[in-house]
Amino acid sequence: MSKLMKFIIISLIVMIVFIIAVFLIGNFYFSVNTVEKSGEQVTNISGDDLENDLLIAKSYSYDDHLTFTYVPRTSGKPIDLYADYKLKEDGTTIATGNHRLCEDVSVDKPIVIEVQRNLSSVYELGMSVEDTNGNMVQKSNIAIKPHNELFFG
């Protein structure tokens, strides 16, 4: 095989790889860009660093309601926990829990708080969770704001 033929074959392979890479990157960028622009909320989650941080805080936003979940980090046996929380809409308290017993909390049965949603409102949830021995296992604050508002502080 001549040097010219080898050069042509290698050039074609490089061009094909380049075209495939551009195509894949373009599709990835388009997908991510579309998701970013269509977001309906801005979420800020803050929490204390605890040695025994047992739960992962998650929020789910829908047009008509919000769902906050606290899921155990591991799939061990179910445990009983006590939750203290305050949920605010535009600064007004709309739901509270004072040492609420949550029985058999597991990956399949997390702590769940749901609320009807107004798309233009700001929601804030302060949550602290203790085990049955009084040890703090979760402490976090979640704020959900309309996508056109910014977080300060």
TrEMBL record:
Record field: transmembrane: 7-30
Keyword terms: Membrane, Transmembrane, Transmembrane helix
Name this polypeptide is given: Uncharacterized protein
Organism: Methanolobus vulcani
